[in-house]
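Can anyone check this?
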Amino acid sequence: MTATTVGTAATAWRACPIAEGCGTSVAGRLRDVGASGRARAAEISHPAARARFVVGRALLHGMVAERWPHRHGPELGVELDAFGRPQPIAPDGLEVSVSHTHGLAVAAVSRVGAIGIDVESLARTDLPEAGAWLTARELRRLAALPHSERRTQLLHLWVAKEATLKACRRVGTTTLRGIEVWARRDRDDAPVGGDVAAVAEMGWVDDAPGAVRVGRDRALVTFDATDPLAASAEVAWYTVADGYLVALATSVSAPPR
């Protein structure tokens, strides 16, 4: 399987199986990750973790370079998020995000605002205890579901919150419990809280083989306990590459004051 791309000219995401390295060996991708990427790869001792990082970073570099057709693309920088995790940054108004799990790397770029992406295997069963990262309302909704549906719902919520956290990192500092989203399948359901405008069409082009959009919603973000709604983001979920769930968060905006 080669890289799968979904999106428009202004916003897109791409997936690549790590074992295949998107057409070349993982070691061969080191030349495509830039100086900072090679330095970071050298610090990762575990081979599988290094492979995930290299393929994800090379995927992202390739997408950035495509948007600078007259040169090789700028060097990507790195900044730490609120939890001390390194996140890639790009210059000139281009927002970028990357994620990887066992077997698959994904990357996203946007020229029209903040973006965040996250991927997990649909088979993952070792998520942190729900009470540590779900809001009280999310916990109540989860408890109301049939037991057979809860694990899938938890996974949808996890990737949505992780993607939203990345998309919001330039707006403010929050936590997974500061983000509320309900991974609904039915667009006619009321958005979280019941007082948010209907979720708008996101403009995604679902024409990439193997990528299927399975839902969308709005994530509500709180940066301060005294501010009940500091920002919101659009979230879309995709399944891709035989067993992976991708969440993409875009269109981060603050409510009128």
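Reply from J.R.: I decoded it. Residues 147-167 form the longest helix (21 residues).
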